[in-house]
Amino acid sequence: MSKKTIIPFGPQHPILPEPIHLDLVVEDEKVLEAIPSIGFIHRGLEKLVEKKDFVDFVYVAERICGICSFIHGMTYCMAIEEIMKVEVPARAQYLRVIWSELSRLHSHLLWLGLMADGFGFESLFMQSWRIRELILDIIEETTGGRVIFGSAKIGGVRKDIDAKTLDDIVRKLDRYAADIREIAGVFLSDASVQHRLKGVGVLSGADAYALGCVGPTLRASGVAMDMRQLGYAAYKNINFSPVVETAGDCYARCSVRIRELYQSIDLIKQAAGQMEAGPLEVKVSGTPKGEFFARTEQPRGEVVYYAKADGTRFLQRLRVRTPTFANIPALVKVIPGHALADVPILVLTIDPCISCTER
Amino acid sequence: MKFFVMAKTVLRNLFSAPATRRYPAIRRPYYKNTRGSISIAVDQCIFCGMCSRKCPSAALTVVKAGKKWTINRLRCIACGYCVEVCPKQCLAMGNHYSASVQAKTEETFSHA
């Protein structure tokens, strides 16, 4: 009978982009239990809502996360717009879809790179980020920022994409899809990668649902749940069905994200095709009074914004439930029984975004 | 199951031009929209203080009495909100990043 030891994993670890800490109870090389602790980068951004004007808070909401920034800002705007009964113009709705999908593209490519780095495939990591850089260029060209878009606004959007730029983007994305297909081949069919991913961290559909998982983690276990089905922004006019895999292992989670890359490109093309000229925003006057839950799909899964306003310039309460927070129980559930060397891969497959989680 | 799927890509990368630029010899062109740094045409400024009240990171200080407009470039998050709210449109967002600094100083502008 070997001795039980506790090995600390994080908050600083080579595979972690952000600090999360796990206490791993191990026996030999096998992990028996994982005890998470979070709270290393709590910034109190939800509390700040009491001191910041609700219009100005968009800038803060957008900076909750450095990767899915646009969708955070957009969801906050959606919550306020719903409370104030503001109808966002159609063109702004389509632009929101385009930017959301660009943000998904760069987030998933970032994740693929981190994952490749996690299982020790350095050249694949570089190749993924090389493609991501091209997406970031599109984002910078259209919004002015590489990861912080700054283009969401209560009542619409701040910036427009002219027809020529949009054509260019669609043409570029076709080219990038070919590049993505090349690296996708490595992720999905290379023997060395499959050896690390297949059958590792299996999460059944029932477990994933019961634990409240969201996003690719849930969809890889066979549950077809995607907030874009709610039809917020212009998703209601776009042909969309969620990407689902059934195996529930790390390979399935990787596969879902790769297939979502093609889907995002398709959604951007559809939105670009349907978008018509029109105003970008409506003028918003007055103050919000009431409460609303806004739900959208981030690259990592469903994000929920609860806003409560009492008719003053400052919200009474803002609560953000981020996707990573919902996926941590799944992580704690899948780790036991695996080898210590598989823990980095398992932590990465939920695509942890800790600054979102702790706000 | 396949082996060496990456080999083709690796070989092509080996014999093709690098994906990165030889900075600073070759500079990256900025986009028109790029949010770089804030500049002020201080002659037109009326020191109303709107920008400093709206600034999300409190990087701006405006003293109406002394007619001074101060920016802390290290606090500025280049969101461009001040440019949007300025009633005289004397603030502008340049697409170049501000130069690196050696000390944490603030830049003050006032009427000449």
The oligomeric state is heterodimer
Helical proportion of chain B? 10-25%
- Please report the number of helical segments of chain A: 12
Cα distance spanning the termini of chain A: 43 Å
CATH domain fold name of chain B: Alpha-Beta Plaits
Spans of at least 5 consecutive residues with low confidence of chain A: none
CATH fold-level assignment of chain A: Cytochrome-c3 Hydrogenase, chain B
Q: In total, how many beta strands of chain A? A: 8
**What is the helix fraction of residues of chain A, given as a range?**
40-55%
Q: Compute the number of helices of chain B.
A: 3
Share of residues in strands of chain B:
15-25%
Placed side by side, the strands forming the largest sheet of chain B appear as 2-3-5
In the sheet with the most strands of chain A, the strands line up as 1-2-3
Count all strands of chain B and give the number. 5
